[in-house]
Amino acid sequence: MRVHLATDHAGLEFSQQLQEHLRAAGHEVVDHGPEEYDAVDDYPSFCINAAQAVANDWAAGEFSLGVVFGGSGNGEQIAANKVTGVRAALVWSEATAKLAREHNNANVISIGARQHSLEEAVTLVDTFLAEPFPGEERHVRRISQLREYEGTGSIAGKEVLAPTNSDVPAVLPAAEA
């Protein structure tokens, strides 16, 4: 299986060691960076690139999955979820890694490198990669609703608030927060 990886400085060592583990298990690994340690690098572009590669594979009918790392995994998950067609899940246990695939057909997971040992992270990744999506109707229905909203901003037959302004600031000034 093709596995796309990305991280920032906080997960670089995990990513390098995970790549060795995945290749030894027979997976095709695509590293989206960074290539070297930089204490002030920014995760968004690395994680977006890995997520976009997964989305591109799926659009081409090729099955692949992605794994993104960072200190907590939160920002990396947010970055990956900005890519149309990606369902990235933050995983912190074997159960959440399994359910990410089983219930959500997640195609990317995010792991906090400062929250887990390498051995724990390897277990989370292996669990995620091994779990098939069983395709139960209720899960397919929910995933379809997410995809519909992603493409149209609405869900047929459901009440969903319409966006009022697409130019929402990324950060509010402290006085307004």
Could you walk me through the main structural features you see in this protein, from its secondary elements to its overall organization?
With 177 residues, the chain is α/β, with parallel strands linked by helices. It has one domain: Sugar-phosphate isomerase, RpiB/LacA/LacB (Ribose 5-phosphate Isomerase B, Chain: A). It is 42% helix and 14% strand. It has a five-stranded parallel sheet, with helices on both faces. Helix 2 crosses helix 3 and helix 4 runs parallel beside helix 5. The model has no long low-confidence stretch (mean pLDDT 93).
Number of helices: 6
CATH H level, superfamily name: Sugar-phosphate isomerase, RpiB/LacA/LacB
| CATH fold-type name | Ribose 5-phosphate Isomerase B, Chain: A
**Assembly form of the protein:** single chain
Assign the CATH class: Alpha Beta
Number of strands: 5
Q: If you compute it from the alpha carbons, what radius of gyration comes out, rounded to the nearest whole angstrom?
A: 17 Å
EC number: 5.3.1.6
Catalytic activity: aldehydo-D-ribose 5-phosphate = D-ribulose 5-phosphate
Protein name: Ribose-5-phosphate isomerase B
Pathway: Carbohydrate degradation; pentose phosphate pathway; D-ribose 5-phosphate from D-ribulose 5-phosphate (non-oxidative stage): step 1/1
